[in-house]
Amino acid sequence: MSKRDGDDWKPATKLVRGGTMRSQFGETSEAIFLTSGYAYESAEQAAARMAGDEEGFVYSRYANPTVRMLEDRLALLEGAETCRVTASGMGAISSAMIAPVGAGDRVVAASALFGSCRVICQTILPRYGVETEFVEGANLDAWKKALSKPAKLVLIESPSNPLLEAVDIEAVAKLAHAAGAKLVVDNVFATPVLQRPFDLGADVCVYSATKHMDGQGRVLAGAILGKTDWIEEFIDPWLRHTGPAPSPFNAWVVLKGLETLDLRVRQACRNASQLADAIAGHPNVKAVRYPGRKDHPHHAVHAKQMDDGGTLIAFSVKGERAEAFRILNALQLVDISNNLGDTKSLACHPASTTHRALNEEERASMGLDESWIRLSVGLEDADDLQKDILAALNAM
Q1: Which end of the chain is more exposed for a tag (fewer CB within 10 A), N or C?
Q2: Burial environment of residue 170 by CB neighbours within 10 A (0 to 12, 13 to 18, 19 or more)
Q3: How far apart are alpha carbons 115 and 374 in whole angstroms?
């Protein structure tokens, strides 16, 4: 890979300057190229571009200047060779999981995954003759057993959705490679600010840019990052022919969101740390999961991989669905929403929202029952958030 401009910049500079491509007008803010197609100077040029013999844009389902800026910025930030942006986070994850596999292939995945990711692995892939095996993410012996025979892909989240479990990325990467598999890491909860999967051995990194990268609840987008040859062989044909292309406007919104990503994530981490401690001390709470707290069962792994505790908290209340709903309904400042990574604090009941498509046995396999609440911590004053959450817990 040739050295790119900005490779030696610090992350905060990459988030603001990376991938900038100015038009002849010299605009300071990135331009939005709201166009579906592109005109050619001649029929010969059109043929050359479509054949890949000449550089240039041909159709915005394939590539777009605004989208390209976002892809280049994310690749520079992550230290990846190549990035492709999609219309949503699930567009990125589904493409990364489905495009490279075929009948007879084998996928190994952590059992603790976002609900839709579980559906892809256990319902959609088997329809096409792809075997999927689920493994307890924190159990390295289970990974060793599952990867003692060949596999094509391994999928993990760390921290996982919704209970913030940890997977030792470096250890699983070594096992995956020994089995001939590519390791795909969903890094959305940690963000590129707090965790760098490629430094830990990951082959592919996926994001829902809808979350922290936009960070203000406005648009949908996703990203797939990896080596150029893998992206060009598997991902590019899939994206071009199935069409999960992002809107240039959405890409522009995410570009602007990246400029403040580092500031927002670090402040939200400070808020989350304070709130996790306050929630843990409440008598109506059975358990708290926050990667930055030493009582997290996987704290040592999180501490090794992440620069801070993150923006998400999970806590289990003394009760079941009714008690969890009572707490959520008593919140005055925090919104009830299944989104996350927003400047506004958001809370949800995963068993009935983000993971409702899973049956009780499947939820139990990841330790999720009706008592859990997931809290995405935003940028409000931490004292105001603490007052609101404790008042809701008191209302139980």
Answers
A1: N
A2: middle
A3: 14
| Per-residue confidence (pLDDT) for residue 1, from 0 to 100 | 33
The answer to whether 309 and 190 are in contact (CB under 8 A) is no
Which amino acid, one-letter code, is at 204? V
Joined tokens for residue 346 = 């958001």
pLDDT tens-digit series, residues 69-118:
999 999 999 999 999 999 999 999 999 999 999 999 999 999 999 999 99
Burial status of residue 295 (CB atoms within 10 A of its CB: 0-12, 13-18, 19 or more): exposed
Domains defined along the chain, listed by start: 11-258 (3.40.640.10), 261-395 (3.90.1150.10)
Cα 84–Cα 240–Cα 106 angle in degrees, nearest 5: 75
What is the side-by-side strand order in the sheet with 335-336?
285-289, 312-317, 372-376, 346-348, 335-336
Sequence-separated (6 or more) residues with CB below 8 Å from residue 289: 163, 164, 165, 296, 313, 314, 315
Q: Are strands 106-110 and 153-157 parallel, antiparallel or unpaired?
A: parallel
pLDDT tens-digit readout, 18-65: 999 999 999 999 999 999 999 999 999 999 999 999 999 999 999 999
User: What are the tokens at 151?
Assistant: 């596999």
Q: What percent of the chain has pLDDT over 70?
A: 99
HSE toward the beta carbon, residue 271, CA cutoff 13 A: 26
